[in-house]
């Protein structure tokens, strides 16, 4: 590891890696990794923080991040600052993973993951301090429909603080809101999810 750098595209830090063959690349910063540390990526490597290897070579209970779903596609799960997944089972060609969201799902044992937790675990505790800081992140003000006029929102209108005036909440365009499922039915990977994420 040559440097640990800030990345504006994510809330985790990134590490500049200098490979033995002269190549350079970036990885997500694993928690506890320091400048000068050596990390290894391969099939038969020790279970050490920052090392990347296939799930088939990891013992049960290993804390992992940057988890592949599709072989050869690179890590897609548990990449945000402070996130960590867990390898909780192996059965045939499948590995059972517990993800940071609480979801339990299957993936191929040949898929790779990085040992340890993503660094910068305090990212979620950072106080933005003012509305402008939130604006820089693209978070615009949220105005409740019930304080609008009827022309602007189905919840609008009425004298003073009144109920929304309908059975179920609606979006500004009249579609059901708050509680309607938005995930596509019969999605191709439904059979890989053993337990849905906890709210």
UniProtKB/TrEMBL annotation:
Residues covered by the Large ribosomal subunit protein uL2 C-terminal domain: 47-176
Family per similarity comment: Belongs to the universal ribosomal protein uL2 family.
InterPro entries given in the database record: NA-bd_OB-fold, Rib_uL2_dom2, Ribosomal_uL2, Ribosomal_uL2_bac/org-type, Ribosomal_uL2_C, Ribosomal_uL2_CS, Ribosomal_uL2_dom3, Ribosomal_uL2_RNA-bd_dom
SMART domains named among the record's database cross-references: Ribosomal_L2 (SM01383), Ribosomal_L2_C (SM01382)
PANTHER family: LARGE RIBOSOMAL SUBUNIT PROTEIN UL2M, RIBOSOMAL PROTEIN L2
Gene Ontology MF, one: structural constituent of ribosome
Primary localization: plastid
Alphabetic keyword roster: Chloroplast, Plastid, Ribonucleoprotein, Ribosomal protein
Region described as Disordered: 150-174
Pfam family for this entry, one: Ribosomal_L2_C
Assembly notes: Part of the 50S ribosomal subunit.
Gene this chain is encoded by: rpl2
GO cellular component: mitochondrial large ribosomal subunit; plastid
GO biological process: mitochondrial translation
Alphabetized Gene3D superfamilies for the sequence: 2.30.30.30, Nucleic acid-binding proteins, Ribosomal protein L2, domain 3
Protein name, entry field: Rpl2
Domain Large ribosomal subunit protein uL2 RNA-binding: 1-41
Subcellular location: Plastid
């Amino acid at each position: 590891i040559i440097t640990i750098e800030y990345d504006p595209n994510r809330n985790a830090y990134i590490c500049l890696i200098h490979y033995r063959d002269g190549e350079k690349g970036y990885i997500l910063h694993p928690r506890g990794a320091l400048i000068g540390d050596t990390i290894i990526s391969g099939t038969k490597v020790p279970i050490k923080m920052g090392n990347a290897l296939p799930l088939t070579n990891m013992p049960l209970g290993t804390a992992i991040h940057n988890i592949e779903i599709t072989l050869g596609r690179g890590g897609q799960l548990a990449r945000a600052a402070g996130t960590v997944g867990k390898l909780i089972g192996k059965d045939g060609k499948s590995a059972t993973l517990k993800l940071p969201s609480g979801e339990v799902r299957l993936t191929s044992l040949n898929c790779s993951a990085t040992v340890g937790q993503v660094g910068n675990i305090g990212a979620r505790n950072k106080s933005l301090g003012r509305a402008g800081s939130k604006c820089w992140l693209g978070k615009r003000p949220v105005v409740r429909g019930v304080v609008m006029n009827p022309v602007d929102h189905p919840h609008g209108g009425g004298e003073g603080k009144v109920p929304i005036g309908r059975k179920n909440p609606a979006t500004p365009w009249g579609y059901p809101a708050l509680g309607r499922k938005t995930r596509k039915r019969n999605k191709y990977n439904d059979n890989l999810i053993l337990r849905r994420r906890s709210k």
